[in-house]
Protein: ATPase
Amino acid sequence: MAHIIVIGNEKGGAGKSTVSMHVATALARQGHKVGVLDLDLRQRTLARYLTNRTAFMAKSGLDLATPVYYDLPDIDENGLNPGENAFDHRLSMAVARLEEDCDFILIDCPGSHTRLSQVAHSLADTLITPLNDSFVDFDLLAHVDGEGEEITGPSIYSEMVWSARQLRAQAGLKPIDWVVVRNRMGAQAMVNKEKMQRVINKLARRIGFRTAPGFNERVIFRELFPRGLTLLDLRDIGVKSMNISNVAARQELRDLIKALDLPGVKANF
Structure:
């Protein structure tokens, strides 16, 4: 069966689509067959990213390793039994279709709580939660006291992940490998950064997730989106010498892929 990777975070602006595109493309470039679903049916940022990639390849004549995007299929709701949810069926049909010939299925969830997102989390073999390095975003995972040192209680998102874990346990499936990816971490050793490190470590032990390094804020990510490109495509489009920022960003991606420890995947790009 395909290994299912879910990118989930109920807060916008955390870099979910950037992480999704780079992870999916890194897997595709290693020869893995990767299927992608975008559950943000309104903004569809990841879907747009892949559409831009297809258009760029057609215009430039390049053939870049690319994951396969799949829309959720439409269903006849009149055929549902009482109490059955149409979104559940659409998602399960899409996953079943991709599992036929994919090694990995990557599901990008919206930055809000939806039925689709809730069901997707219960399907995750690996759950990646991008998180900006601030207490505003940390509130997604747990609440802290006024000093930012002690955890006072879990958030609704953490509770949803807990429920997803319980559903998987009841179904006899292996536990979710939950990885919190810290994006936009400052290079300087500031007091806020140190507090974040301590409280994240405490919460990781309490509710059971791993942490992984993410991406710093870089202009390159905004420049790549219109063409649907990733850091791994730069040499393919003729960039012979990368600047220091691009080299550092590529190393961040390498470190992320290594930390995810996905089956059969190496960070050797």
About this structure: The chain has one domain: 3-260. The chain has a mean pLDDT of 91. The first strand starts at residue 3 and ends at 7. The chain has nine helices and nine strands.
